[in-house]
Amino acid sequence: MLKGFKSFLLRGDIIVVSVGLIVALAFSTLISAFTTNVIDPLVNRAEGGGHTIGLGVQLGQAGQKATFINFGALIGAIIYFVIFMAVLYFAIVLPYKAVSARRGVVVFGPPDPVKACPACLSDDLPLGATKCRYCGTELVVQSTAS
């Protein structure tokens, strides 16, 4: 039972999908901070709303209702994103790459080399392709040894 669970966890697609979801969650935090601290104050200013305190720019005169664009919270979210991605990389991606390398599987590696079709100019064809997948043009097979 534990061997099956270990096999499930070490499947490449599970790790890749979970890393993608974690990156999306962290990126969502950045977008939320930008919306809350930059866009919302601009909309509030157009409506005549209040302000918040932080590092940023105050819109409006001193005697009127002023709106504050809070760049400090956005900078904090960017720092959080960078730290979060570093922890994700060093705690999950690097150990997973090491385990996969011991198993003989390359993950999170450089992309495979590709070639372009001279007829339709598509540039994502594998080096060993003999025919373009888009236009059907016959291609010359390139040697992979240098």
Automatic annotation (TrEMBL):
Recorded topology in the membrane: Multi-pass membrane protein
Keywords: Membrane, Transmembrane, Transmembrane helix
The keyword Ubl conjugation is assigned to this record: no
Keyword Transmembrane: yes
Gene source species: Acidiferrimicrobium australe
Matching InterPro entries: MSC/AndL, MscL_channel
Annotated PANTHER family: LARGE-CONDUCTANCE MECHANOSENSITIVE CHANNEL (PTHR30266:SF2), MECHANOSENSITIVE CHANNEL MSCL (PTHR30266)
Entry's localization field: Membrane
Pfam families: MscL
Gene3D superfamilies named among the record's database cross-references: Large-conductance mechanosensitive channel, MscL, domain 1 (1.10.1200.120)
Protein name: Mechanosensitive ion channel protein MscL
Bilayer-spanning residue ranges: 12-34, 68-94
